[in-house]
Design the sequence.
């Protein structure tokens, strides 16, 4: 099994690219989807309640994700404390998934938004970073109903994309058309399969 991490900053198209790899035949896993499932678990919500208080919950007991975001993206210590609750659980579920997949899955790609911020590089044999110009990213996020101010706040909490590029094995530039992005994905997919065939599983 060849394990690849996929990352990039907020709004740069990680989920779109992950689906492209999936269509080509890679087994894919989305850390954000795991978090969404974890937030439905009562034990996890209780730990969040202890950290952030009752104000982050709605009347029906569900988590007010917008309220949580407004708090943690304005306070780095609280954001990291929340990550410390969620991330070990995320990787536990990822490991369980990998154990089930076993050798049947030749290439596994896991989307991890904070891969470099939390120093998870050593968990992967290769790392792909998605890059897009900030103006293009902001336009996409605004089209989804996310305000420019909120988007910039989230982006500023992450490692600058130029630093992520310098730490990565492959870069996908997602400023153009979907077809242009797909072409890059296909090329990287073939390179990863070739490296797996060669047995080159070490990161330089």
Sequence:
């Amino acid at each position: 099994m060849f394990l690849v991490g996929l990352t990039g900053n907020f709004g740069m198209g990680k989920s779109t690219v992950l689906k492209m790899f999936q269509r080509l035949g890679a087994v894919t896993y989305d850390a954000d989807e795991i978090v969404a499932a974890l937030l439905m678990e009562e034990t996890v919500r209780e730990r969040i309640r202890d950290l952030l208080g009752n104000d982050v919950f709605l009347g029906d007991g569900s988590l007010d994700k917008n309220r949580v975001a407004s708090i943690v993206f304005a306070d780095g210590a609280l954001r990291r404390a929340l990550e410390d609750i969620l991330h070990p659980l995320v990787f536990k579920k990822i490991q369980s998934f990998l154990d089930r997949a076993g050798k049947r899955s030749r290439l596994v790609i896991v989307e991890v938004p904070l891969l470099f911020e939390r120093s998870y590089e050593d968990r992967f044999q290769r790392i792909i970073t998605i890059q897009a110009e900030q103006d293009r990213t902001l336009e996409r996020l605004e089209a989804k109903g996310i305000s420019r101010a909120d988007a910039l706040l989230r982006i500023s909490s992450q490692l600058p994309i130029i630093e992520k590029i310098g730490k990565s094995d492959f870069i996908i530039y997602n400023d153009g058309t979907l077809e242009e992005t797909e072409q890059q994905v296909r090329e990287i997919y073939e390179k990863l399969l070739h490296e797996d065939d060669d047995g080159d599983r070490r990161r330089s």
